[in-house]
Design a protein that fits this description.
Length: 345
């Protein structure tokens, strides 16, 4: 995806608006630090900007809660600010550039695009503001650490489960997320690698993109099912790589009365998707640990700022959730984190 130059001057009014509009999570006062890679604000507090891909999906609320927990434990301030929707690339670029202009201690970023965010992250590095990338990878080496799920392995979990459900034979479709999203591209790769290893399975469509909203994924899901003549039994298995594509495809299947007529494995979880899993409309959900991802991303940045060595790559884990293991305590801890405790919601 080509982008115009990103070095626009941030006006005083925009900067002021963001300063007033950003919620802040703070804890007890602590001495400042001039930790490796970035400087503390003049009041002696470490201030970390946490920038998600979006702010509406349940996934990001769990990330936010984990970030708040880490901020309290390691005694730093965080500012949570990101685009409303996961397709607003310009908004995310502007948020990063604004935080660089503000001179925060560090930035924790889930990039919407693996190349388009390189320029603002490089600007941050040049301003001696370190960046920890989380959830989705970024090309280049200007960030100090990458905190995320091993998405290829997570996609393979989904592929193996679909293969098992179909007894290694049948036609499979993938409704992708959007181009440039490294995390979902890797999930799609892991799924396709697992499925293509089974000679009896055939991928009949893997070039359609659902987009960043439930609405767009629902529309694309409907057209995909129609194009593949799914109502005739020509599609046996479906994979979707994130929350919006999974819920959108679920709605498309229900509208056409094809739910339960094919094996459907999605990615990420929400109350509605868990309900669909219980009802048998979804056969499996590969879930990450977004709470742990937010927690480790902020903790890693705080450690880096305080001069501690941090790993270049930190895996936050993923697991397959089915109707059979939904009540497992370990699964419930990942699926139902206590958001109210940390976000007050």
């Amino acid at each position: 995806m080509k982008m115009r130059a990103l070095g626009a001057v941030v006006t005083f009014s925009i900067l002021g608006g963001l300063l007033l509009g950003c919620p802040k999570d703070s804890s007890k006062p602590a001495p400042g630090t001039d930790g490796e890679g970035g400087a503390a604000p003049s009041n002696g507090r470490i201030k970390i900007a946490v920038i998600p891909k979006g702010t509406t999906h349940e996934f990001w609320k769990s990330v936010h809660a984990g970030a708040v927990k880490a901020s309290r434990e390691v005694d730093v301030d965080i500012v949570w600010k990101g685009p409303l929707k996961e397709d607003d690339l310009k908004a995310q670029v502007d948020v990063v550039s604004t935080f660089v202009a503000q001179g925060v201690s560090g930035i924790v970023l889930a990039p919407l695009n693996d190349t388009a965010l390189r320029a603002p992250v490089k600007q941050a590095a040049q301003a001696k503001i370190p960046v920890v990338v989380f959830d989705s990878d970024l090309q280049g080496d200007d960030h100090v650490s990458f905190v995320a799920t091993d998405n290829v392995a997570a996609g393979k979990l989904a592929g193996d489960h679909v293969s098992k459900l179909l007894n290694d034979k049948g036609n499979v479709v993938v409704l992708r997320y959007q181009e440039g999203s490294a995390s979902t591209q890797n999930r799609e790769k892991g799924f396709l690698d697992a499925v293509k290893a089974k000679p009896g399975l055939k991928v009949v469509s893997d070039n359609q993109y659902g987009g960043a909203t439930t609405e767009s994924a629902f529309a694309k899901g409907e057209s995909l099912l129609l194009a593949q003549k799914a109502e005739t039994g020509a599609v046996n298995g479906i994979f979707t790589p994130n929350e919006s594509t999974t819920f959108g495809m679920l709605l498309a299947l229900r509208k056409s009365n094809m739910h339960k007529k094919m094996k459907f494995v999605g990615f990420d979880a929400s109350d509605k998707l868990v309900g669909a899993l219980k009802e048998g409309d979804v056969d499996g959900l590969v879930v990450q640990n977004p709470f742990n991802m937010g927690y480790l991303a902020v903790k890693t940045m705080a450690d880096h700022l305080r001069g501690k060595k941090v790993d270049k790559r930190i895996d936050t884990g993923a697991r397959l959730v089915t109707k059979d293991n939904l009540e497992d305590p370990a699964v419930k801890e990942v699926m139902q984190p206590d958001l109210k405790k940390w976000l007050g919601e």
